[in-house]
Amino acid sequence: MTQVARSAPGKPRRLDTFTLASEPGNERLALARVAGTVKDLGLSEARLERLKTAVAEATMNAIEHGNGNRPEIPVEVEVTLDGDEITVAISDQGGEAHAAQNAGDPEEPDLLKKLDGAQTPRGWGLFLIRNMVDAMNVTTDGQRHTIWLTMRTGGAAHGEHV
Question: I need a surface site. Which of 50, 54, 101, 109 has the fewest CB within 10 A?
Answer without folding.
Answer: 101
